[in-house]
Amino acid sequence: MDTNISIITYSGAQLEPYLDDVARLRIEVFRAFPYLYEGSMEHEQEYLKTYLSSPFAAIVIAQDGDKVVGASTCIPLVQEPDNVKKPFLEKGYNLNEIYYYGESVLLPDYRQKGIGVAFFEQRERKARSLSGFKWASFCGVERPADHPLKPTDYVPLNHFWRRRGFQQTEMVCYMSWKDINEAAESPKPLRFWMKELI
Ligand SMILES: CC(C)(COP(=O)(O)OP(=O)(O)OC[C@H]1O[C@@H](n2cnc3c(N)ncnc32)[C@H](O)[C@@H]1OP(=O)(O)O)[C@@H](O)C(=O)NCCC(=O)NCCS
Predict the structure, then answer these.
(1) Does the pLDDT at position 2 exceed 90?
(2) Which of 30, 45, 104, 161 could covalently link to 35 via disulfide, CB atoms 3.0 to 4.6 Å apart?
(3) Ligand 1 mean position to 162 CA, how many Å?
(4) pLDDT for position 183
């Protein structure tokens, strides 16, 4: 990997200097298919506050020199909102045993260089450094195969996630946001993937 690239995991107050950059990256990267998310700095800053206040949460930051080019978040599932916890409760999981990966966002010019793999490795290291987590889990949005905004060269991340040791589950949650081609927010289905940590 390029020697100018650093990939470091930060928690708590260490995160403060990076939050605006992470918010900007989320807005920029999630505008693209399949997320199509029309974000605002105000909403992002509110969302990211949770990461500042939890000593068990972390954000992995990728930098090219001084420039933040990617970020990847993780947090105990118990600190997520009810809509994210609900499918696990319904399946009888102990929520305290699940470490949740929020998202990975990386600028397109920096992809296919191993940074995404490092995001998964560093988040798993964080989960294993805390006691009691038996599972890692994240969710990804599901879009219809014939979605009008799907690029012809779009490659789903399913293969990448399987190679990181995750399996698709039957669990789905719903999150609402306004797509770039929508007039108002609507709920979107997101499917959970899981990996056993023991
Ligand atoms: C998800 C995302 C972070 C992946 O990042 P990435 O840096 O392109 O991924 P990597 O380069 O680490 O891995 C991609 C492949 O290249 C390989 N690779 C290429 N160069 C590599 C290197 N130098 N070192 C290690 N792996 C390398 C990886 O092994 C992997 O192949 P595999 O899955 O067959 O093992 C990036 O695609 C992204 O930001 N997407 C948009 C946002 C999104 O959809 N996020 C996910 C949901 S929140």
Answers:
(1) no
(2) 30
(3) 12
(4) 94
Q: Does residue 15 carry a pLDDT above 90?
A: yes
CB count within 10 Å of CB 78 equals 16
Q: What is the mean pLDDT of residues 1-10?
A: 92
Residue 102 in contact with ligand 1 by CB distance below 6 A? no
* Structural domain containing residue 94: 5-196
| Mean pLDDT on 69-85 | 98
CATH number of the domain that residue 47 is part of: 3.40.630.30
Note the pLDDT of residue 3.
81
Ligand 1 atom index nearest CA of 103: 48
Using alpha carbons only, give the angle 50, 63, 197 rounded to the nearest 5 degrees: 55
How far apart, in whole angstroms, are the C-alpha atoms of residue 94 and residue 133? 10
158 CB near ligand 1 (under 6 Å): no
Q: Give the total number of structural domains in the chain.
A: 1
From the CB of residue 168, how many other CB atoms can be counted at a distance below 10 Å?
Answer: 13
Is the bond leading into 34 cis (omega within 30 degrees of zero)?
yes
